[in-house]
Design a protein that fits this description.
Helix content: 25-40%
Strand order of the largest sheet: 2-3-4-5-1-18
Number of strands: 18
Number of helices: 11
Strand content: 15-25%
Amino acid sequence: MANRAVYRWLLDTAQLWPAPASNPHGYSLTSTESWATGDASRALSVLPREERAKVLRFLRPQDAKLKLGSYLLKHLAIVRSCGILWSESVISVADNGKPCYNPPEDAQEQTVQFNVSHHGAVVVLVGRAGPGPRLGIDVMSVNWDKDRRSVARESFESWVRIFEDVFSEREVADMVSTIPEVYTLDDSTSVDLKEVEERGGSYKIDKEEIIVRMPDRTEQRISPEAQLKARLRRFYTFWSLKEAYIKMTGEALLAKWLQELEFRNVRTSQTSEQLQGTELWGGIVSDVEVWLKNVKEGKTRMEIQAFGEDYIISTAVEGDEGEGLAAAGNFEPWKVLSFEKDIYPYAIQTKEAGD
């Protein structure tokens, strides 16, 4: 099977479709009904009636935004992959319950596979044109303050073990015992312990702090707070990997084989701030190993990348049976979409304009 490109899109809804400042219709200003009369009305108008109704079922506008963004990305994937009009785009459901696009029997278009995830204010999609192996995606928005308070009531290990039905014992031990490599310090600078050692420095654990002797002989101290944040980022990296893989299969977190699915050689994606970058994307981690029932699974390609300081995104794409990771397809760089520039023009395109 041809090695087809895998595209990935992100839509940040944080600043999109704000609720109107006043409401002549008598709705509560914090209601979804009020929100739908503002800037969101134009985006809602391009959805079929039944999809629009599903968006408006949500009580909170922030949840309705994510559902709206999810529908918009799915339709855009179909339109751009098949070269059809928005009005001809129909979201189908595959046998495993996952959304997809199945063209009419007499049509020239190809099928389109995609998977969507949303959390916080972000919606992400992974897609690929044509039939074949599966794909999945997950985005996690980490609530540092809430999680810190939860861990403070017990040890980190006790907190991780709350979720031991999701992880294997090896994964739990990895999360609990492995010292993370990268930390963001209280002054917003970062320290990479592996890089420090490679350049002739060293570190030691002294009570609750990690004392780092830098290559230039200066000293940095990694506080318990910074250590906990790094550990939480590692935990949610494991969680996101598992979500992406089971979404690829069409299963849920109740899958009977969940604890037999292991991820090894897991590293966190360094954030843009840790890399001293000027954009929102963090580093790419693509050498994670997938093990199923204690056997290394060699056909699924996993990739992790941070977005901003609080988002972790994992992608899972399956290759053809017997062809290995290379058959999973080429991952195109992430694209952050604008509703006005990248989505709405396709939604209002007419047949005459498209000819």
